[in-house]
Specification:
Largest sheet: 2 strands, antiparallel
Number of helices: 7
Helix content: 40-55%
Strand content: 5-15%
């Protein structure tokens, strides 16, 4: 019997099942992406960190904000940003607002690594797109974000996929395009 079939709409069992199903899908997606990210010498955590930096303002973002958005420890972020800095994929500068903080952002090589990965994943992404178009994906994310927005247990990160890319470029997509049909 499927946990969704007989449980009331607000049942904890439904949320547990949803969480488990999303986790399973996430692991499968990440496994497929990892098969390609090794071509640009990125592990899962490093790719997540680069992707988070790609979505930040041009001046970059600090490690605390990165840790919060990725729901990982600041200590883990610290090690990863240093590794990515040594690889030449991230750079830092002191914050103009608080000289104790460093703002991290992608270097041109970091942008190139992401673009190379996206190029490698283009065919696979097209195959997935035949089953779930981008509007459906954004609608799903919007629904989950709305359901979890008032959750007192939430880590405070936001679920955003504000990027679009064309061959040869990665650009932030305007926020008003999200959810547009």
């Amino acid at each position: 019997m499927h946990p969704f079939s007989d449980a009331p709409a607000d049942s904890a069992a439904q949320w547990i099942e949803l969480s488990e199903q999303i986790s399973m899908c996430s692991r499968r997606l990440r496994s497929r992406i990892a098969a390609h990210s090794s071509a640009v010498h990125l592990g899962d955590a490093q790719l997540s960190l680069l992707w988070a930096c790609l979505k930040t303002p041009p001046e970059g973002t600090d490690q605390t904000a990165l840790a919060r958005s990725l729901a990982i420890s600041p200590a883990h972020v610290s090690g990863q940003v240093e590794h990515l800095r040594r690889q030449g994929l991230l750079s830092s500068q002191r914050s103009i607002h608080d000289r104790r903080r460093q703002q991290w952002r992608l270097t041109p090589s970091g942008h190139e690594a992401i673009q190379t990965l996206l190029t490698h994943l283009e065919e696979w992404g097209g195959q997935l797109g035949r089953h779930l178009d981008p509007r459906q994906l954004l609608a799903l994310l919007d629904l989950l974000t709305a359901a979890l927005s008032d959750d007192p247990c939430a880590a405070g990160g936001s679920m955003q996929i504000p990027l679009s890319h064309a061959p040869g470029s990665i650009t932030p997509a305007p926020a008003q395009q999200r959810g547009a049909a």
